Each structure stands twice: as C-alpha cells, then as structure tokens.
Amino acid sequence: MSTRWVTVQKAAELTGLPATFFDERTGRSGRWPEGKVWKWFEGRKLIDSQALDNFIDRAVCPPSTRGRKKADQTCRA
C-alpha cells in the first residue's frame, strides 16, 4: 500500500534526498506550490508523494554532463 501524504522526513527516506531539500522548496522560496505538492496538516508539513512524482516528471531539467561516458566512447576492460 502506498501512502499519498507523507511527512518531510518520510519523503526524505523514500527519495534519498535530505529533509532540508524539502524544507527549502516548500518554504519562502515557493518553488513547490502549496496545496498541490505540499500542505500543512495539524502543525506538520506533509508532502503529496503522487504530486511530487508528477511535478518532478514534468520539470524541465538540463541534461547531465556528469557520470556517463559519451556514446562514442567505449569501456575496455
């Protein structure tokens, strides 16, 4: 069973990102919209795990230049 609304700490555990990452994006910066990706409930900040997945999937990200060799390079053992 998947839980839709999770605490910041649980979201950090599930994604492998630090809790400060969530606090920064849900705080004053307003990078993540309140009510769509996160909300306050009984004094706790909750993250909508389904909306977060959708938000990340739709986010425009520059291609990474780290960690992978270009296709024309081959690895020789």
Automatic annotation (TrEMBL):
It comes from the Bacteria. This is DNA-binding protein.
